[in-house]
């Protein structure tokens, strides 16, 4: 398995550039700045998933779904994220590669009239050439192309033929649309190996065959190839200024630091911070930064748009559509090819009034959720009839419904279902804010805008041409106040000419407030800076805007990015089962007493100088950890020590050793901790600690394994002068919490997880028994032997 991300313990204290998010904006920025020779760190909230890791059935898909709503806050980082507000629901991807993992990868430009709108900054309106260059650079990497109809292995698809039929009946133009999908095996545009599309139709739950040109197939491996470092499961919270640098504060998923109420970690950016969390993520990040004191434009959160998205279905049509992705049924030879999620478009954008224009596309339902959608539509349409249809046509439709009920989604009515997606022009007046600590979208009566009635009418007309039953988006109805669902959220950090009209300037540089100044080195590059609905799929424009901005920023820095694309060969990384747990220890520390641990502990207590850390420890390969005498593990976490820093410190280069032999006494063993401490103002200390595990005349296993003797040095290693010493201890309550955090990670299945935990437990138990139990029985045995010898002598 090829892997792009590193473990969080490898995070360095500082980088030239820190990027938050790995969608189109973040991935492009990572590649371009790395190519300019800058040290780049990319932080991604989601997991890294590669082809083969994506769900292919409903059970697996359900585990990846997370919902944010008034009554429910997502605590994980599942791949499929739904953000539900009063008026609109947003669906987006959460993983390395962002929404590129779960979109249809359509690359289409807006019509020229979109860029004449004064909501665009003057620099873009007056210099369309630079934006066109951005489109060109994005096309070079993303490699969009139409479905190669009638090429070997790529027959004309039933769903595309049906869309052509609908277009003809509507008297609107049909065409094949450019999509970021590979239709040939071999190296892609950046020299990364890909497979060709196999027409499975599962694009939007994640391509398991490596054919979709997701960002993990191009920009991200290119960034890694040029030295960028990627870290996943990182939840960036806010940014603040530290001298001439920026600090990005973050938390970790799956580390259980919340169990100990641990402080946030941070990483330093010495030149640039690129916020690229998408329309929702970037806006929330800046809103939280504003709460922490960052001055921003009053326009922050405004002009949110759903890009005029409307979903619908043409159900139980008179001809097969084959629009249900195959999922775990991929090997079933009876199933017809589905094709990429979107292949065709009815281009309805050329209207006298731009606001009446629409992009009308067909789609497919991915296999993992095919059964769920089939059952839902069977219930919704049970009492629906085909208007104007003959008695026999109605009977045939009824039979198809029964067939779907009996045989499942690949037969009958649901196999004859066309999926629609329309993008149009809403008013773009949504507003995002923080409500009770969570991101909230307010947009009163958005679904009642006239454009959505027009879109609904278009889908109804398309369905009539196929003699089917038109099914509206399930939430777009009077009873639910015409709520909407969008898969293309834009805005919230919109570009503008000044802080009175936008949050950022034309290259995403964040305005400081009400005047025209900007925060040096703080940029937003993603869909959140797009200032209005585009009326078509937005990924190509987001990419072009980002490419343009990166080129200008790099030029302003006096640098130049390379343009060649050497072959990319990343080492295969297999699953390496490991064990992870989080530990808190507390105690006292003295900067005055630097020799005697006990005296330093007492002095620290008298001086009210506490010392506390919360560390997440990972064993690495559990097989190596339990057999290698060095037992190396990694650590990441925070340290609170007021005597050293008035704010929590983040650690780096953390190394943990369990039960290593004491160099001074082979009969004794140590648990060793070493790590670099990094302060918010740029200072560094080095922490060296150990627990003395030894058998003596007292049975003191708990004391030995819960007492840590620590020495802190100035600088980044033990050659610096001593900053102080102390003792830390584990409280019984914290130890109980620690046990709840222990888990196996990087395992393929539950059985492998159980085996990993068993190995760790056996290793720990063996060392405890060898150190504390065996000597006791050995002493007893020796005494008995001595007694027996004495009795024989007598």
Shape: globular
Summarize the main sheet: 8 strands, mixed
CATH architecture of the largest domain: 3-Layer(bba) Sandwich
Rg (C-alpha, Å) = 30 Å
Q: Look at the structure and name the CATH superfamily of the largest domain.
A: FAD/NAD(P)-binding domain
For the secondary structure, the number of strands is: 31
Number of domains: 3
Output mean pLDDT.
Answer: 90
Helical residues, percent: 25-40%
Stretches where pLDDT is under 50 for at least 5 consecutive residues are: 775-781
Secondary structure category:
alpha+beta
Q: Mind telling me the CATH class of the largest domain? A: Alpha Beta
Q: Into which percentage range does the β-strand content fall? A: 25-35%
N-end to C-end Cα span:
72 Å
Reported by name, the CATH topology of the largest domain is FAD/NAD(P)-binding domain
The total count of helices amounts to 17
Family: Belongs to the GMC oxidoreductase family.
Cofactor: FAD
InterPro entries: 4Fe4S_Fe-S-bd, Cholesterol_Oxidase, FAD-dep_OxRdtase_2_FAD-bd, FAD/NAD-bd_sf, GMC_OxRdtase_N, GMC_OxRtase_C
Keywords: Cholesterol metabolism, FAD, Flavoprotein, Isomerase, Lipid metabolism, Oxidoreductase, Steroid metabolism, Sterol metabolism
Question: TL;DR?
Answer:
GO terms for molecular function: cholesterol oxidase activity; flavin adenine dinucleotide binding; steroid Delta-isomerase activity. The chain is an alpha+beta fold and 794 residues long.
């Amino acid at each position: 398995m090829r892997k792009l991300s590193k473990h969080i313990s490898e995070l360095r204290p500082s980088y030239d550039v820190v990027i938050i998010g790995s969608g189109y904006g973040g991935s492009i920025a990572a590649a371009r700045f790395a190519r300019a020779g800058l040290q780049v760190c990319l932080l991604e909230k989601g997991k890294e998933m590669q082809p083969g890791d994506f769900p292919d059935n409903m059970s697996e898909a359900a585990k990846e779904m997370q919902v944010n709503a008034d009554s429910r806050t997502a605590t994980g980082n599942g791949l499929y994220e739904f953000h539900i507000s009063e008026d609109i629901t947003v669906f987006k991807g959460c993983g390395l590669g962002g929404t590129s993992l779960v979109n249809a990868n359509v690359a289409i430009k807006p019509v020229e009239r979109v860029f004449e709108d004064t909501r665009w900054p003057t620099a873009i309106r007056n210099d369309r050439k630079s934006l066109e260059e951005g489109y060109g650079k994005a096309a070079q990497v993303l490699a969009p192309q139409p479905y190669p109809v009638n090429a070997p292995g790529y027959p004309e698809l039933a769903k595309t033929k049906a869309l052509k039929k609908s277009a003809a009946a509507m008297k609107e133009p049909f065409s094949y649309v450019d999509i970021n999908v590979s239709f040939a095996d071999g190296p892609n545009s950046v020299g990364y190996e890909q497979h060709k599309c196999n027409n499975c139709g599962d694009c939007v739950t994640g391509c398991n065959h490596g054919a979709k040109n997701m960002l993990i197939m191009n920009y991200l491996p290119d960034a890694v190839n040029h030295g960028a470092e990627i870290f996943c499961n990182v939840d960036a919270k806010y940014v603040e200024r530290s001298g001439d640098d920026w600090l990005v504060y973050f938390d970790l998923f799956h580390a259980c630091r919340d169990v100990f109420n641990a402080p946030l970690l941070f990483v330093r950016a010495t030149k640039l911070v690129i916020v690229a969390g998408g329309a929702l993520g970037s806006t929330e990040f800046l809103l939280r930064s504003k709460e922490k004191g960052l001055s921003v434009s009053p326009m922050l959160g405004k002009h949110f748009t759903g890009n005029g998205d409307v979903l619908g279905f043409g159900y139980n049509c008179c001809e097969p559509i084959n629009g249900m992705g195959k999922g775990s049924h991929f090997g079933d030879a009876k199933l017809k090819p589905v094709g990429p999620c979107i292949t065709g478009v009815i281009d309805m954008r050329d209207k006298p009034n731009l606001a009446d224009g629409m992009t009308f596309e067909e789609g497919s339902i991915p296999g993992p959720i095919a059964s769920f959608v089939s059952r839902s539509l069977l219930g919704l349409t049970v009492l629906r009839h085909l208007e104007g249809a003959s008695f026999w046509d109605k009977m045939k439709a009824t039979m198809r419904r029964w067939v779907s009920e009996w045989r499942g989604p690949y037969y009958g009515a649901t196999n004859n279902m066309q999926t629609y997606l329309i993008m149009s022009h809403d008013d773009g007046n949504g507003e995002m804010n923080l409500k009770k600590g969570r991101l909230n979208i307010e947009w009163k009566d958005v679904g009642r805008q006239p454009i959505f009635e027009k879109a609904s009418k278009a889908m109804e007309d398309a369905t009539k041409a196929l003699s089917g039953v038109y099914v509206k988006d399930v939430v777009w109805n009077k009873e639910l106040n015409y709520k909407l669902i969008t898969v293309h959220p834009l805005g919230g950090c919109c570009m503008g000419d000044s802080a009175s009209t936008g949050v950022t300037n034309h290259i995403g540089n964040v305005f400081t407030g009400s005047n025209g100044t900007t925060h040096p080195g703080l940029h937003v590059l993603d869909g959140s800076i797009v200032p209005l609905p585009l009326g078509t799929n937005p990924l190509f424009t987001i990419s072009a805007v980002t490419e343009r901005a990166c080129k200008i920023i790099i030029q302003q820095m006096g640098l130049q990015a390379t343009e060649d694309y050497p072959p990319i060969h990343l080492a295969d990384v297999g699953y390496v089962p490991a064990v992870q747990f989080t530990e808190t220890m507390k105690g006292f520390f003295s900067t005055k007493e630097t020799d005697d641990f006990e005296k330093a502990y007492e002095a620290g207590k008298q001086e009210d100088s506490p010392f506390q850390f919360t560390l997440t420890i990972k064993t690495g390969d559990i097989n190596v950890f339990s057999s290698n005498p060095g037992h190396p593990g990694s650590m990441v976490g925070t340290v609170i020590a007021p005597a050293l820093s008035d704010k929590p410190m983040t650690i780096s280069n953390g190394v943990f050793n369990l039960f290593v032999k004491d160099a001074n006494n082979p009969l004794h063993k140590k648990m060793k901790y070493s790590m670099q401490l990094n302060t918010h103002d740029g200072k560094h200390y080095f922490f060296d600690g150990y627990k003395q595990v030894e058998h003596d005349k007292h049975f003191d296993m708990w004391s030995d394994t819960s007492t840590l003797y620590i020495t802190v040095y100035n600088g980044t290693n033990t050659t610096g002068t001593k900053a102080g010493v102390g003792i830390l201890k584990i409280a019984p309550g914290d130890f109980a919490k620690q046990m709840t955090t222990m888990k196996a990670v990087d395992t393929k299945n539950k059985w492998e997880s159980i085996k990993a935990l068993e190995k760790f437990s056996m290793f720990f138990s063996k060392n405890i028994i060898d150190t504390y139990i065996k000597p006791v029985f050995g002493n007893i045995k020796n005494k008995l032997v001595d007694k027996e010898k004495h009795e024989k002598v007598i």
